[in-house]
């Protein structure tokens, strides 16, 4: 499972199949998750001094096939934009990937697709949970990490960091189930996100996603838009 798939499962309500965040935020988060995945697999990096691209820009360490079609397409996007700032790539990576991931999760038997219409006119799709076992394991790992304020698993730490950037940790893990207040849960999440588990490229990917979400929500608040 990709980190992006776990992000999408986490922010999709099990019962209603609807997103717990806006569509724009979800798409940026998925782009950030794909960049994080590529960084964790050491396919892409953020350049240091004296490299072939400017310091702080994206550089490709290994352009070879990953064995995953969604990740291969994401890597191709980065290859085409090598030398760009991470924040300029995150939004591009998230475009049109949400439906692909939903379809994969349906094919894996984790979700089911339900079609409907609003007022009998506007077509809608929902993705309620079909098999909760994988998501339950992921949530258990998240809960344990948040309870302790630390984790040795970099993928759990990455997922928490991405959810923190989305301001969605409390929507995924009810703080009351851990005996915590919302602010305490967020503090635990931030403690994990700021830990030493992440290399420079992973941290820049998450920071870039966070900046893109802030920019998107600010734009929506000033001019309208967004939505699922």
UniProtKB/TrEMBL annotation:
GO terms for biological process: Golgi organization; Golgi to plasma membrane protein transport; Golgi vesicle budding; retrograde vesicle-mediated transport, Golgi to endoplasmic reticulum. It is found in: Golgi apparatus membrane. It is a peripheral membrane protein. Keywords: Golgi apparatus, Lipid-binding, Membrane. GO terms for molecular function: phosphatidylinositol-4-phosphate binding. One of its GO terms (cellular component) is cytosol. PANTHER family: GOLGI PHOSPHOPROTEIN 3 HOMOLOG SAURON, TRANS-GOLGI PROTEIN GMX33. This is Golgi phosphoprotein 3 GPP34.
